[in-house]
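Recap quiz, item 2
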Amino acid sequence: MDIHEYQAKDLLGQFGVESPPGALAYSPEQAAYRTRELGGDRWVVKAQVHAGGRGKAGGVKVCASDTEIQIACKEMFGKKIVTHQTGSEGKGIYRVYVESAVAIKTEFYLGLVLDRSSQRVMIVCSKEGGMEIEEIAAEQPESIIRASVEPAVGLREFQCRDIAFELGLEGNVVQNFVRTLSACYRAFRDLDATMVEINPLVLTENGRILALDAKMTFDDNALFRHSQISELRDKSQEDPRECRAADRGLNYVGLDGNIGCIVNGAGLAMATMDTIKHAGGEPANFLDIGGGATPERVAKAFRLVMSDDKVEAVLVNIFAGINRCDWVAEGVVQALTENPVSVPVVVRLSGTNVEEGNKILAASELPVIMASSLSEAATSVVEAWRSHLTNGSLTRAVQ
Ligand code: GDP
Ligand code: MN
């Protein structure tokens, strides 16, 4: 799960990471009066979206008056911002963060990530702050400093000092940097983060180390033990299809293709997507309905897949062990009876109660195309989708 910059700054602040004074606003008027509360004479208005690259896309504006703040806000609120991290759809701006502007001496990059290959927390730093890490890696790879944390002992002070020296820091600033980096590590560890990124981390003219930007990502599987973080979830920033799935307890990942997939088991779901691609189609989603799925759950999964406008054919592929093919068939019948669809539906059932399942589908007289193997199912769904595209209209009765 991702959170907003202002939320990350607040959390990191609780561990000792300093950032400029700031305030959140939900409207241009609120931004203006919250800025007056902050005081000072230069501020930065920052669009709060779950994506980086806002600076270049007009989501970060330095302002020197009330009027400038309001103008900057009006250009942001209610608009979508498109950056290389948002996808082409962009992300809606519904909150802005106003912050006192800072006189920057040097900008650094600081990131902590979970490195799965070494199974450790990896610290990544560079003097080339402000640029995205991908750009730094492409253009200035020699500037990247890496350190990994031994889990049994945690991040050691000498490691932080070494990094500070490599970044060219001196005097009291070294201690400030050590404090900041240690705080980031503690926040990462204690809150079950998978990523903390401060870009830029800046050295100010008066020797302070401040986080001007902050991003944090958390391990979804650990959220149950951090209710204060679960509460920070902002559904307006998430893929609406994935949101609906999460609310229904389904494992769903939206993709760009047009063949909707309803499968049980993550492994079979991946194999199904591969086989669809092999047959010349593009999957619209990954969906694992899990074990012991009731007809209601299957029907829910079906409605979820059909709520994606891009879906032009559906493949249901079930290899039932714990699941029961008759329940799956009932779920498909229930979904198609309540909300008839005009796109082709291919069903392949195998395993527990397969005969009953096939009988239920046959007796329903619904226009379901049956298949007996995965490859046959994938070929059928792609063929049905192609002929449907050429013959039939793609208006659908379902939502
Ligand atoms: P991002 O583009 O989404 O990563 O947004 P950032 O928060 O990193 O802001 C983009 C850039 O705006 C930063 O790299 C800074 O150079 C600049 N910026 C942000 N806040 C300030 C500030 O307080 N003072 C100054 N001078 N520049 C700032
Ligand atoms: Mn940034």
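The chain is about 35% helix and 25% strand.
The chain has three domains: 21-100, 104-230, 240-391.
End of item.
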